[in-house]
Amino acid sequence: MKEQRWYIRYKIEGRANLKPEGKKSGAIKTNLIDISYKGFAAYANEQIAGGTEVCFWLITKLWDEPIIGRGKVKYAQEIKRDEQTIFRLGIEFVEIDKKILQSIINYIVQDMCAAVKKRAT
Questions:
Q1: Of 85, 94, 78, 80, whose CA–CA distance to 18 is shortest?
Q2: Beta carbons within 8 Å of 70's beta carbon, 6+ residues apart
Q3: Confidence tier at 16 by pLDDT (50, 70, 90)
Q4: Sign, Cα dihedral of 82, 44, 16, 88
Q5: Domain-wise residue ranges, the chain
Q6: Is the pTM of this model over 0.85?
Q7: What are residue 108's phi and psi, to 5 degrees?
Q8: Which residues pair with 78 in a beta bridge?
Q9: For the structural domain made of 10-120, what CATH number should be given?
Q10: pLDDT 10s digits, 65-87
């Protein structure tokens, strides 16, 4: 299968609260897996159909306040873990502050480089 990714994915710790378009009740709380310049992936206990637009709030220790934006669910992969079902969601950015996103990715890369240098010494 041909690789479809255009951007490198970086592991990231944090949460993402997702509010699907048209959903009346509260946001779906997820755990972040990775982030790229194009979008992010997260684990959720609820499925959101592909193509659904969502508002999101990304919460990570790499940024002082939530990063708010809009995205589109590109995929929702069902995963069985023991007796529990979770969903890996891929969210493509539709609207996000690109300067904040670039700052976060730069911080992750700098942290990775520092870790490599530390191991080499």
A1: 94
A2: 53, 54, 55, 56, 93, 94, 95, 96
A3: very high
A4: positive
A5: 10-120
A6: yes
A7: -60, -45
A8: 87
A9: 2.40.10.220
A10: 999 999 999 999 999 988 889 99
Q: What digits encode the pLDDT tens for the residues 36-58?
A: 999 999 999 999 999 999 999 99
Residue with tokens 């970086």: 10
Tokens of 69: 């934006």
Please give, one letter per residue, the 3-state secondary structure of 29-91: EEEEEEECCCEEEEEECCCCCCCCEEEEEEECCCCCCCEEEEEEEEEEEEEEECCEEEEEEEE
What number of residues does the chain have? 121
Residue carrying structure tokens 């194009």: 38
Let me know if 55 is exposed, middle or buried by CB neighbors in 10 A (0-12, 13-18, 19+).
middle
In the block, which residue shows the tokens 């659904």?
52
Q: Which long-range contacts (CB under 8 A, 24 or more apart) does 69-77 make?
A: 69/93, 69/94, 69/95, 69/96, 69/97, 70/94, 70/95, 70/96, 71/39, 71/40, 71/95, 71/96, 73/48, 73/49, 74/39, 74/50, 75/50, 76/47, 76/48, 76/49, 76/50
